[in-house]
């Protein structure tokens, strides 16, 4: 037997129904906010991801040469491909441009709970306005999705990358030395962060001030620790979110998301039920277009870890709607099969989920099968009934059965 590759999964019918149900809720919520769906290739030129995340990202992704010698990678995330698409073809669209997407991503990392080498990401990008209104709109969409899918407990932590970047600049750290420090601060690896700040020439006093700020979290009042544009921006974001009705929001200046392209507000969402690996969404405001050959354009976006979100829901007791079949059509013998197929086709064309016996089972076995597939009604096509221009319709939940003229079958079959 050939096994599936490590870090990948097979999904059976029940699992796929559950996943599609959740995915469709996310899609509908994005549409309610005016976001429209886009799609990009599963593989891209490797340069797209090294420009965005640096050359070391190649060690973490599926990168290879194709048969033409081109450096190609399976996409490890979807923001870079969507922004590449924007620069290539969408720059003339009216602003703000609001897009969402759902798709598979691939990373070569150690599989663990809620983390796979092939995984799924739902995300959104709002392009064209650097103001707090856009940031709040994007956070509100992410939060609305979690509320709509039924996640009971989730926290939204919001920071601003400009606070720490400003402190590092004031301490004499130029923009080229800041990213490695921010990456360590993002991971809460404080000893390594201290070492890098010391190496860059920062004083012990300035180092501890930076560390202290990353530990600042709580209600909006904790912003008293800082001043300037970042504070004003965050206060405006919080005010708009409050007007949208979201109160499970807190300041966390330790949300760094240590990547160069983030320019302002950054946020993360956690599901406490997941324990240590609890982050289910992350995002912020950024500028990537100039890296990909376009004009500098401000954007705000997020990515939701679809698999982790589903895992969090399941740990809270989530169950998707049960699969059902509207009608199961049973021909009693070979002579009635033709009419059974015609009836099945008529029901399907009318939008009824319909199955028909393909196995030549007995009536009793067909009733057992109808119960197993959760059929709501069974249509029994018999010679005697057909001679009267009718079929028998059985309610599978009550066992009640009645004779129905074939021309009235659609009106008698409940969806």
Write a structural description:
The structure is a single chain. The protein has two domains: about 300 residues, BirA Bifunctional Protein, domain 2, CATH 3.30.930.10; about 90 residues, Rossmann fold (3-Layer(aba) Sandwich), CATH 3.40.50. The chain is about 40% helix and about 25% strand. It has 14 helices and 17 strands. Strands 1-5-6-12-11-10-7-9-8 form a nine-stranded mixed beta sheet. Strands 14-13-15-16-17 form a five-stranded mixed beta sheet, with helices on both faces. Helix 4 packs parallel to helix 9 and helix 7 packs antiparallel against helix 8. The mean pLDDT is about 90.
Which features characterize this protein?
17 strands; 2 domains; nine-stranded mixed beta sheet; elongated; 415 residues; 14 helices; Rossmann fold; alpha+beta; BirA Bifunctional Protein, domain 2
């Amino acid at each position: 037997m050939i096994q599936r590759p490590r870090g990948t999964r097979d999904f059976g019918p029940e699992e796929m129904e559950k996943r599609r149900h959740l995915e469709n809720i996310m899609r509908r919520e994005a549409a309610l906010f005016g976001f429209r769906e886009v799609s990009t290739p599963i593989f891209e030129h490797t340069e797209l991801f090294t420009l965005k995340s640096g050359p070391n990202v190649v060690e973490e992704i599926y990168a290879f040469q194709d048969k033409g010698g081109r450096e190609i990678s399976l996409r490890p995330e979807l923001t870079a491909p969507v922004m590449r698409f924007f620069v290539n073809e969408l720059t003339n669209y009216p602003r703000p441009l609001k897009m969402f997407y759902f798709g598979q991503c691939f990373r070569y990392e150690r599989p663990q709970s809620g983390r796979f080498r092939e995984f799924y990401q739902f995300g959104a990008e709002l392009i064209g306005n650097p103001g707090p209104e856009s940031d709040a709109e994007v956070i509100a969409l992410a939060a609305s999705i979690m509320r709509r899918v039924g996640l009971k407990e989730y926290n939204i932590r919001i920071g601003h990358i400009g606070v720490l970047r400003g402190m590092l600049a004031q301490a004499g750290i130029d923009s080229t030395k800041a990213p490695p420090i921010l990456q360590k601060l993002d991971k809460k690896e404080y000893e390594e962060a201290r070492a890098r700040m010391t190496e860059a020439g920062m004083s012990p006093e300035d180092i501890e001030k930076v560390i202290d700020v990353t530990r600042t979290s709580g209600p909006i009042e904790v912003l008293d620790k800082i001043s300037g544009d970042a504070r004003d921006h965050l206060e405006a974001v919080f005010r708009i979110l409050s007007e949208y009705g979201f109160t499970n929001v807190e300041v966390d200046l330790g949300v760094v998301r240590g990547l160069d392209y983030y320019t302002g507000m950054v946020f993360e969402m956690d599901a406490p039920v997941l324990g240590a690996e609890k982050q289910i969404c992350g995002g912020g405001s950024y500028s990537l277009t100039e890296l990909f050959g376009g004009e500098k354009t401000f954007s705000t976006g997020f990515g939701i870890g679809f698999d982790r979100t589903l895992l969090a829901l399941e740990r809270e007791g989530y169950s998707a709607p049960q699969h059902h079949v509207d009608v199961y059509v049973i021909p009693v013998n070979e002579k009635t099969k033709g009419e059974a197929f015609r009836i099945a086709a008529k029901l399907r064309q009318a939008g009824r989920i319909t199955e028909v016996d393909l196995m030549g089972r007995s009536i009793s076995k067909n009733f057992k099968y109808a119960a197993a597939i959760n059929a709501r009604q069974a249509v029994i096509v018999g010679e005697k009934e057909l001679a009267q221009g009718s079929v028998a319709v059985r309610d599978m939940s009550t066992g009640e059965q009645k004779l129905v003229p074939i021309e009235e079958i659609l009106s008698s079959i409940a969806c």
